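Page 42, continued from yesterday. The earlier attempt failed because a stray header line got pasted into the input along with the sequence. Redoing it now with the clean sequence only.
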Amino acid sequence: MASKLKPVFISAYVTLLAVGSIQALYNIVFKSPIGGWVGVLLALGPMLYFFIKLFMTDTARTDPELRNYRLLTWLGGLITVYFGWSTPDYAIQILYSGFVGIFGIALYLNWYSKFENRETTALSVGNPLPDFILQDENGNSISSDAFIGSPTLIIFYRGNWCPLCMAQIKEVSAQYQQLADLGVAVALVSPQPHENTRNLAKKFSVPFKFLVDTENAAAKKLGIFAEDGTPKGLELLGYDSDTVMPTVIITDAQGNIIFADLTDNYRVRPEPDTFIQILKEHTVAP
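This time it went through. Structure tokens are written below.
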């Protein structure tokens, strides 16, 4: 049940942040008294800015607790109460600041952002990478056995719609030459439509393997499947409602797992230098 509520929550949350911020700004400019609406704008605006900023970032991680954003949200709520309590718009102001602002950010941080039950024996370090079948961007089948023969960095990402996934791919692309010099292959895997994967491959123009996990078959086998993990509404753009939890796997040339990052927060991905460090620690790379 919780997994089905998450995609509805995130779409509704961002929409209400935008609507409330616009309404607050309108009332500040054209109406009076404005004190309560200033509080509403402060309670909603920072998180709206946060989501807009996500789509422009080149960094695949944020502060897990978003401390500054929480502080501004609570400050906005206090301003709303102090200045708005005697005004005709007090009820709607409290709804925006208290419910959408304070309650919304609490749900986003403590519930939506986090994954549960990420432990999976299929990705235990030292074990061989399980067998599974993927497809390239043109629909040709590729077995996980194709990763044997060279150390491989495998990144399971949610899709082109996910800004932090795109930032993570940007970071790895910037490391391309260093990884290539070490003999490391890179495979990027997503359950998104093939056309989206082809577009991504054209965008980055690096010799990575851009692969598709049809119907999340590999994700289910590896224990990293995210049922109803796609925000509501993205189905209109061709994305399936199910997706994958962001996961990074590094295998050695024999196909054994030497590193697996199963983040419990979608906003926290490994630092890009971590991959090089892991490879050197396991003497996979010189």
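Notes: DSSP finds nine helices and nine strands in the chain.
Reminder to self: strip header lines before submitting.
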